[in-house]
């Protein structure tokens, strides 16, 4: 397995690790389960999620740079992304429901599966749809919203030498802004898909028409 695929696999491996860290069973002390209560749990979870998010762009960059783009990598990379996003929001519904209500998790995960389905159809039709700027913005806001929601489980605000950071407000704003951007980017992706699938269908109809005319115009041999 090459380096880019190994990095992608590490992102997949971070999914159960993140779920465990954000559970009451973290950490294990040898005698029973004792969750951390001083904020360490949230900090560790955020570090794991941020590092996993960084690998999202790193594996693709290395694959292109080292010319190691493989079929396995093309399969694992989007799978790792969907698993990480889905796991994060599902866990947050239980971990911090006042910030992440269930309907937001359903909407975000549904959006990811919708885009994956459209990509599969596009691939079968012989074309691709590049990620838009909205999609890239959505990814950045997702990372911010997950990290903020994890921190907001422990703190409503931080006071750093008189400078107040409204953690709860940032988390709520990021979550709902991410939801809006997710919906808009999904609509944008669907519109782009519809235009290309329409052109692809038109090309197929024209090709079929030309082939059928050639068959009709070909003179038959009389023996």
Account of the protein in words:
The radius of gyration is 23 Å and the shape is globular. The protein is built from 6 helices and 2 strands, in the order αααααββα. It has a two-stranded antiparallel ribbon. The longest helix has 51 residues. It has 2 domains: 93 residues, no CATH class; 120 residues, no CATH class. Helix 1 packs antiparallel against helix 2 and helix 3 runs antiparallel to helix 4. A hairpin with a 2-residue loop joins strand 1 and strand 2. The protein is mostly helical and 223 residues long.
Could you name the key traits of this structure?
mainly alpha, 3% strand, 223 residues, 6 helices, two-stranded antiparallel ribbon
Outline:
This protein is mostly helical.
Task: Lay out the secondary structure.
Layout: H1 3-21, H2 40-65, H3 71-95, H4 102-124, H5 133-152, E1 158-160, E2 163-165, H6 167-217
Antiparallel strand pairs: 1-2
């Amino acid at each position: 397995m090459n380096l880019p695929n190994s990095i992608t696999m590490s992102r997949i491996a971070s999914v159960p690790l993140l779920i465990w860290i954000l559970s009451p069973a973290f950490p294990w002390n040898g005698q029973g389960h004792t969750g951390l209560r001083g904020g360490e749990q949230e900090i560790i979870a955020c570090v794991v999620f941020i590092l996993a998010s960084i690998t999202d762009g790193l594996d693709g960059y290395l694959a292109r740079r080292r010319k190691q783009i493989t079929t396995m990598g093309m399969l694992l990379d989007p799978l790792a992304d969907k698993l990480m996003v889905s796991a994060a929001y599902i866990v947050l519904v239980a971990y911090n429901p006042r910030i992440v209500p269930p309907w937001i998790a359903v909407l975000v995960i549904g959006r990811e599966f919708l885009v994956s389905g459209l990509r599969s159809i596009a691939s079968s039709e012989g074309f691709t749809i590049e990620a838009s700027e909205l999609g890239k913005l959505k990814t950045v806001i997702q990372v911010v919203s997950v990290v903020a929601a994890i921190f907001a489980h422990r703190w409503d605000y931080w006071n750093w030498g008189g400078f107040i950071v409204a953690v709860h407000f940032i988390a709520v704003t990021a979550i709902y802004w991410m939801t809006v951007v997710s919906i808009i980017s999904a609509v944008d992706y669907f519109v782009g898909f519809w235009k290309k699938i329409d052109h692809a269908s038109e090309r197929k109809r024209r090709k079929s028409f030309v082939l059928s005319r050639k068959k009709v115009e070909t003179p038959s041999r009389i023996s």
